[in-house]
Design a protein that fits this description.
Helices cover about 50% and strands about 10% of the residues. The protein has 35 helices and 14 strands. An eight-stranded mixed beta sheet has the order 3-4-2-5-1-6-7-8, sandwiched between helices. Strands 11-10-9-14-13-12 form a six-stranded antiparallel beta sheet, with helices on both faces. Helix 7 links the parallel strand 6 and strand 7. Helix 20 packs across helix 28 and helix 22 packs across helix 25. It starts with a strand and ends in a 6-residue tail after the last helix.
């Protein structure tokens, strides 16, 4: 079946044809056979944007002797094009029999997955005919008042003809995501108030000077600048377009579309009266133009709002969805991590490959001592935040915020075994991931080296200024830029130019806020604060990009990290650095130069030790060698695993729980094992994972066949219960378990070895984690089998 999509606008010059051309190309690049019909019957421009000179156009078919298949052009971009005709007025005003012949021929076209129609602008009969015939129409607007007014007029005509399809509003040429959001919301507010037609967000295309370049060169921007900001926006639009089409039960029949077009094109479309806000006597442009309304907000702002990037929180990833219309997501590059309330997972970040390779080498030689582990974790901001996040997961309400003042606290709170497993997991995940687009100088020279240098400087400044916790300053300096890596990881193509081209941090911050509606400093601080780290350390991350005048009134740690960050910046000249050092701590230029030289030497020494090149990027050869190294180590561990001496059952359970948390980033609640008579399952406490203490002593009878816990134990299958589901069939014990855990659901992970059940691990989960459980089902069940081996000596057969 062919999906027909009409792309139109109320006003010309809003970029409609450019979007049509590039959307068609992106669909083709994804394997969909796509045809683009240039239906601007009077001023065709598709051929110009594609750089083609058609020998025949639509007028040769209508008024000449050409068949329709003779004028279809197969382009080098993978799409077919039906060229319109420029400047022939009579084509734009066809007679009944001509329209009938046209419709008859078009309805015979077969074999396309997508048929895109780029119409004329305005409310002419032909435009309205296409819009009313389609079941999906995209209207392109900009924030200009004339564009908004004309788009409203187009919608009014469609409404008067009782259009019942989907109308999506795509905001083009937007200077920022917040500005586009405001434009859409104001427009929707007026449409909802005065028209009986439903609209949904269709996406955002941000301003990009590369668009003008591509137009002037008569090349699609996707072909000329595939990694540009506008190209990323177009790809996001197409992603959600394809996703939404996949959810539809049936596709629109292509021939039926053309039959409807024939009927509607013969109508004399109802002409809207002047576009006036009937309720307030304000013109439509005044009611919906964000430039005017931003100064004087309406007394009743819209209660519905698409979920677009906010200054964190901001996603669902890459979706802009209205609350009452969850089936109509839009598509634009958004502030990252929106699906998790603006909080990134440390597990998603990657350490430099050479560093992980060196760590794996030491691990394979059994030379990964406690002190060596601390050195490795203290040399990389990613490993450090992973350890910090894990420490915070172990905290209870008694200690709501954790103050880390020493590197040795990593071992104190986690233990060297957990750090070793965390390192192994990070190494394996890095090896399994595709080669990172950003694992270049941006990840090593521009990020890793800057972070480590800042850490050394922060520690040295702390010692000079008699700050009582110099290692705390080191840790804060090491992770101060972690939000930058999070942005770079989530949006590598969009963010890469920032790192490469923006030496001026002020420009970097301004651009981040324009595109992501936040900054890397705010992203990093929000994540760390959600992990319940000490507020002073979090403040050091949040304010490292603030102004000197603001920093002067801050506490010592904030000042130290700010200065360390500024001193490690390559774009700062010596005079600026000396001024900041003198203002904040009274340091002399000689002291500053000594600090910089010492930090630079130590960074270079560590880079040499780890094999990190500060002059280039990670090569494909290094990546390949690293993957081979990981595979060889995994085989060795499978044959000869490290011995884990455990003398009691709680210790064995603790080992299992710790591994579970490292692998799946979820904390188990407790474990149930059968009693000696195999009549009940009883809880087993763990010295390190004692959050399940309130449930100590409870028992599940094996006679409770309806309990998901018992079902999981008997069948060896993973079971899930959620509070929002209809759990009327669950026994009281399972309801009590849900309430006792204080979570939104729980997962039962069976521990089975040689088809003999050994126990069940109970894990409380959130709604967000529930979405991932099914994809992890096989891994969780395999983990349960491995865990059974750890406890089998303590459970009777």
């Amino acid at each position: 079946m062919t999906q027909t999509i009409v792309i139109t606008s109320g006003k010309g010059g809003v970029g409609k044809t450019n979007i049509s051309v590039n959307a068609a190309i992106e669909l083709a690049q994804r394997g969909h056979r796509t045809c683009l019909f240039d239906a601007d019957l009077g001023l065709a421009n598709v051929n110009i944007l594609l750089g083609i000179d058609p020998a025949n156009t639509l007028d040769d078919y209508i008024f000449g002797d050409k068949d329709l298949d003779e004028i279809i052009i197969q382009t080098k971009f993978g799409i077919d094009v039906i060229p319109g005709s420029s400047g022939i007025e009579k084509i734009a005003n066809l007679e009944r029999d001509q329209i009938s012949d046209l419709v008859s021929s078009f309805s015979q076209i077969k074999g396309y997955d997508y048929f895109l129609i780029d119409t004329s602008s305005g409310i002419a009969r032909g435009v309205i005919g296409f819009c009313l015939a389609g079941t999906e129409t995209i209207i392109v607007i900009t924030s200009e008042s004339t564009s908004l007014t004309d788009a409203y007029a187009l919608l009014k005509v469609m409404s008067l003809h009782n259009y019942s399809g989907t109308v999506k509003i795509l905001v083009n040429k937007s200077p920022s995501i917040p500005h586009a959001k405001e434009t859409y919301l104001r427009f929707k507010e007026v449409v909802n108030k005065h028209l009986k037609i439903r609209i949904a967000p269709g996406g955002i295309i941000l301003n990009d000077f590369n668009i003008e370049k591509s137009v002037s060169r008569q090349q699609p921007i996707l072909a000329l600048f595939p990694d540009s900001l506008a190209s990323q926006c177009i790809k996001a639009v197409v992603s959600n377009l394809v996703k939404n089409d996949a959810k539809k039960d049936t596709d629109d029949d292509f021939s039926e579309f053309w039959q409807r077009y024939f009927e509607f094109s013969l109508l004399d479309p109802a002409q809207p009266e002047k576009a006036v806000d009937d309720m307030t006597n304000k013109t439509v442009s005044q009611a919906i133009d964000p430039e005017e309304s931003s100064c004087q907000p309406s007394a009743e702002p819209p209660t519905e709002s698409p979920t677009v990037p906010q200054p964190l929180p901001a996603a669902d990833d890459n979706h802009l969805v209205e609350k009452e219309e969850p089936t109509y997501p839009t598509n634009e590059p958004v502030a990252p991590f929106a699906h998790n309330g603006g909080i990134f997972e440390a597990a998603s970040l990657a350490s430099p490959t050479p560093l992980l390779a060196k760590a794996l080498e030491l691990q394979g030689r059994r030379e990964l001592t406690e002190e060596t582990l601390l050195t490795i974790f203290s040399s990389d901001p990613v490993l450090m935040v992973k350890a910090l996040q894990m420490i915070c997961r172990k905290e209870t309400n008694i200690f709501p915020a954790k103050k880390i003042t020493s590197k040795h606290q990593l071992v104190q709170y986690l233990g060297s075994d957990a750090l070793s497993k965390l390192l192994s997991t990070a190494t394996t995940q890095r090896a399994l991931a595709p080669p990172a687009l950003s694992d270049t100088a941006a990840l090593t020279t521009n990020f890793w080296a800057h972070s480590y240098t800042a850490a050394l400087l922060a520690e040295s400044i702390a010692k000079i200024t008699a700050y009582p916790f110099p290692e705390e300053a080191f840790i804060a300096g090491l992770i101060h830029d972690i939000g930058r890596l999070a942005l770079q990881t989530e949006h590598p193509k969009i963010y890469a130019p920032f790192v490469e081209n923006f030496g001026d941090e002020a420009t970097l911050l301004e651009t981040e806020r324009r595109i992501f509606a936040t900054t890397h400093a705010e992203i990093g601080a929000k994540a760390l604060r959600s992990w319940h780290l000490d507020s002073f350390l979090v403040d050091a991350v949040q304010y490292h990009t603030a102004s000197l005048s603001k920093i002067e009134s801050g506490f010592s740690l904030v000042k130290i990290v700010f200065l360390a960050c500024q001193l490690s910046q390559t774009h700062q000249d010596d005079e600026q650095k000396n001024t900041m050092a003198e203002t904040l701590f009274g340091l002399s230029p000689v002291q500053v130069q000594s600090l910089l030289a010492d930090a630079s030497d130590k960074t270079q020494q560590l880079a040499n030790t780890l094999g990190i090149s500060l002059m280039g990027k990670t090569t494909e050869e290094i990546e390949t060698r690293f993957r081979r190294q990981v595979m060889e180590y995994a085989v060795l561990q499978g044959v000869l695993p490290n011995p884990v001496p455990v003398k009691d059952l709680p210790g064995a359970i603790d080992t299992v729980f710790q591994a579970f948390e490292i692998l799946f980033h979820m904390k188990p609640a407790f474990c149930l094992i059968p009693d000696s008579n195999h009549t009940v399952l009883k809880t087993v406490s763990s010295p390190e994972y004692s959050d399940g203490a309130p449930l100590a002593g409870i028992e599940f009878s094996l006679q409770w066949q309806q309990s998901l816990v018992i079902k999981s134990f008997i069948t060896g299958e993973l079971m899930i219960a959620m509070t929002e589901e209809n759990n009327d069939l669950l026994p009281l014990s399972d309801h009590q378990l849900l309430r006792s855990l204080g979570s939104q659901g729980f997962v039962c992970v069976p521990m089975v070895i040689e088809q003999k059940p050994k126990g069940v691990i109970i894990v409380g989960i959130t709604k967000t984690q529930f979405q991932k459980i099914n994809s992890l089902r096989n891994q969780l069940e395999q983990f349960g089998a491995q865990a059974a081996g750890n406890i089998c000596n303590f459970v009777e057969n």
